[in-house]
């Protein structure tokens, strides 16, 4: 019996199919595969060799913890869930309340999904809602040939007040450049909206928001907004009169068929008998956010000027036909709100320049001599 057992140990045992299927052949826990460079180490002549031969039986838990982390793909391919199917946009918003400006810095987009395969040429377009789309439209430069574009570009809305922050929304669209792809009229790759009431004045806030799908033709109620104008007033004691500066306009209503205007500003001091009372700036072509930086002078003592009214109106220049009225503002001691305060504070001080944004009225004011 002992001899038979010894003989069986000397030759391999045979296992029939039924016994083979009954054997538990589970390989046990799956161990991570080592890097190929561990088996073929490089030669570093100026550094000590720190690599060691791989352990043929590594512990399972330490090996999993030591496994290298996967890097995020800047241009992910394939399907994803609905919330991230269009990609995401990173940007920063800053409401500069001291200078009445809104700064939007577009940093980068991630995981964009263009209609066609391959690379894409993209830019970011910004609009303030509600309002005329062309009046508040700003855009970045175009970044070509990538699904993960980096812009690092700041778009600035001048004349943005605390009232605007409480009621307006910023819309950001990531669009494919039609001039390079010949796909005019194509919808944006994705867009998002941020209620600006969430911003804290003078404090930057960063966002990383998933893009949504909307129609490019979607319109917003513009209301009766005609735009706004930045004026500076200063009573000069040396010159003995009032200096009126027309600095710039923002978000003007488009009056031409091309969606823009050719704006200029008229000044009228009433009454101003025997003295010059009308001035006009130069024309700025095809823009809804013109910058003038022009100054005009009205002579007279401050007591006399305090009884007068300054009428500022913005017009669209038309060659060969009558100019179109865009909007106006009236400053006097009989006005109300910021218009009265701006006028009275200017005449109450000497050699102190005061700048203030004023919304434009849609109806021309009626003055009589």
Automatic annotation (TrEMBL):
Give the C2 domain ranges. 85-211, 225-344
Which InterPro entries does the record match to this protein?
C2_dom, C2_domain_sf, Rabphilin/DOC2/Noc2, Rabphilin_Doc2_C2A, Synaptotagmin
| CDD domains membership | C2A_Rabphilin_Doc2 (cd04035), C2B_Rabphilin_Doc2 (cd08384)
UniProt keyword annotations, A-Z:
Calcium, Metal-binding, Repeat
The family database entries (Pfam families) matched by this protein are listed as: C2
Indicate the segments annotated as coiled coil, or none if absent: none
Instruction: Report the source organism.
Output: Felis catus
* Native organism taxonomy: Eukaryota, Metazoa, Chordata, Craniata, Vertebrata
Q: Which domain of life is it from?
A: Eukaryota
* Protein encoded by which gene: DOC2G
Q: What is this protein called?
A: C2 domain-containing protein
């Amino acid at each position: 019996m002992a001899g038979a057992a010894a003989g069986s140990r000397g030759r391999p045992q045979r296992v029939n199919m039924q016994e083979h299927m009954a054997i538990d052949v589970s390989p046990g826990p799956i161990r991570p595969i080592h890097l190929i460079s561990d088996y073929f180490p490089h030669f570093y002549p100026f550094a000590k060799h720190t690599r060691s031969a791989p352990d043929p039986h590594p512990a399972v838990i330490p090996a999993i913890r030591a496994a290298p982390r996967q890097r995020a793909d800047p241009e992910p391919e394939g399907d994803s869930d609905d919330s991230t199917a269009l990609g995401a946009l990173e940007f920063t918003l800053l409401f500069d309340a001291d200078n009445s400006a809104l700064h939007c810095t577009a940093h980068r987009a991630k995981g964009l999904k263009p209609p066609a395969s391959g690379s894409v040429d993209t830019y970011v377009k910004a609009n303030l809602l509600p309002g005329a789309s062309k009046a508040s439209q700003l855009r970045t430069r175009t970044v070509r040939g990538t699904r993960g574009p980096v812009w690092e570009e700041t778009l600035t809305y001048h004349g943005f007040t605390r009232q605007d922050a409480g009621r307006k929304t910023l819309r950001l669209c990531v669009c494919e450049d039609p001039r390079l792809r010949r796909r005019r009229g194509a919808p944006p790759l994705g867009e998002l909206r941020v209620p600006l009431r969430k911003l804290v004045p003078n404090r930057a806030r960063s966002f990383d928001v998933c893009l949504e799908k909307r129609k490019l033709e979607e319109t917003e109620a513009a209301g009766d907004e005609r735009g706004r104008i930045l004026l500076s007033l200063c009573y000069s004691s040396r010159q003995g009169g009032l200096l009126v500066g027309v600095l710039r306009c923002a978000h003007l209503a488009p009056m031409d068929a091309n969606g823009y205007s050719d704006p200029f500003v008229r000044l009228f001091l009433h009454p101003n008998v025997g003295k010059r009372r009308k001035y006009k700036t130069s024309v700025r072509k095809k823009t809804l956010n013109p910058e003038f930086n022009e100054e005009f002078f009205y002579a007279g003592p401050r007591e006399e000027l305090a009884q007068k009214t300054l009428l500022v109106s913005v017009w669209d220049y038309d060659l060969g036909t009558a100019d179109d009225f865009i909007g106006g503002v009236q400053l006097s001691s009989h006005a109300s709100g910021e218009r009265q305060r701006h006028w009275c504070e200017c005449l109450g001080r000497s050699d102190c320049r005061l700048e203030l944004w004023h919304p434009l009225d849609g109806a021309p004011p009626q003055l009589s001599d």
